[in-house]
Amino acid sequence: GYETALEALRLGHPALHLLIAGGTRAEHEAGYMQQLRDEIQARGLVRRVSITGYLEEADLPAAMAACDLVLAPHLAANGSYSVRVALAHGRAVLASN
Q1: Residue 2: what pLDDT?
Q2: pLDDT for residue 97 is more than 70
Q3: What is the chain's mean pLDDT, rounded?
Q4: Cβ atoms within 10 A of the Cβ of 70, count?
Q5: d(CA 5, CA 49)
């Protein structure tokens, strides 16, 4: 669902920045990450999107503190760990599906 977040960012205020906190956990996901980077480039959002890559547990508080709002643009409902982390750090969450 990152494509939905990218489109919202493109249409939103130019001061908005998207932090994609995390990264691929399995080698078979690397292709999607490259596709996502290509999409960011194609939409002209390179300066407005940052991707951290995999975060250790100790790095999560700093990532959460950097965010005003945590997006969870899921394509299917699930018991998302990332949503639980955001809520545990007192962040507002905007989730789809």
Answers
A1: 87
A2: no
A3: 89
A4: 20
A5: 11
| Owner of token pair 């939905």 | 4
Q: What is the DSSP string of 28-96?
A: GGHHHHHHHHHHHHHTT-GGGEEEEES--GGGHHHHHHT-SEEEE--SS----HHHHHHHHTT-EEEE-
Letter for the amino acid at 44? G
Residues 93 and 87: their CA atoms lie apart, in Å, by: 7
Per-residue tokens: 91 = 């962040």
Distance CA 48, CA 75 (A): 23
| Radius of gyration (C-alpha) of the chain in whole angstroms | 13
